[in-house]
Write a structure and sequence with these properties.
mainly alpha, globular
Length: 243
């Protein structure tokens, strides 16, 4: 409960109670921006309010102080070309602070040995397989059928040249992670929803390309991706039940 409250306080403070004009003002004025201090004050007040105990005043001050330090580093080192990286790093550091404060308050007892069980290694191995090696395997299998499409200028190019860079790879990774999670949770109906959603978004591409080869290429890749995720999920459930 304490961890959930701390996470909620962070989400409210960083997203709900931080208008876009505050962000722009902080980036422009940095330490001279009063909105920076308002933002930090909110992040110190919210944990104190949600936790509901005066004895946790130190936790609120710690979260507020660390939030100030992290945000200042971000403001001074962030460049226009690195906004995305610094945003992710900023959120990760804030999350680590929240977890550290929760640990200091709750003092949970657990052993590292209990985490490094057989099931842990089974899940980690499966996740790594569907994220990286599966992508390479699928690409190698369907590379012999890679179609070419007309980009509208008379040039004949591969499909990857007419789409976002590495978009197909990341879409495949995400869909396999979703399928694996649904299998792990025994929610087979959700996989049907995922297939339907992808079909809807892909329909325009396949229709506009007016190419049977591209349709078959996408279908083979999708079936291989879903198939690998399903088999991996079933194997993980089997090994965890019998192990």
């Amino acid at each position: 409960m304490i961890l959930i409250k701390l996470l909620l306080a962070h989400l409210i403070g960083d997203f709900l109670f931080q208008p876009g004009k505050w962000v722009k003002d902080k980036e422009a004025k940095k330490l001279r921006s009063p909105n920076l201090y308002y933002h930090v004050l909110i992040h110190a007040a919210l944990p104190f309010i949600l936790l509901g105990k005066i004895s946790y005043w130190w936790a609120a001050l710690l979260i507020g102080g660390m939030h100030f330090i992290i945000d200042v580093f971000k403001l001074y080192f962030q460049q226009e070309t690195s906004r995305r990286q610094w945003f992710l790093m900023d959120q990760l550091l804030h999350l680590l602070v929240v977890i550290a404060v929760w640990y200091l308050i709750a003092k949970p007892s657990f052993e590292i040995k209990s985490l490094l069980s057989l099931n842990f290694y089974i899940i980690v191995t499966a996740l790594y397989f569907i994220i990286h090696p599966a992508s390479i395997l699928i690409k190698m299998i369907i590379s012999q059928w890679e179609p070419t499409v007309n980009d509208g200028s008379g040039e004949i190019t591969g499909e990857e040249e007419t789409s976002l860079q590495n978009a197909g790879k990341y879409i495949g990774m995400l869909e396999r992670l979703f399928v694996f999670t649904f299998i792990f949770l025994n929610q087979w109906q959700a996989i049907g929803f995922l297939i339907a959603a992808k079909s809807v978004f892909r329909f325009g591409d396949l229709k506009d390309s007016d190419g049977r080869k591209l349709t078959e290429y996408v279908l083979i890749g999708t079936l291989l991706s879903f198939g690998m995720a399903i088999v991996t999920g079933l194997l993980v459930r089997h090994f965890m039940q019998t192990g």
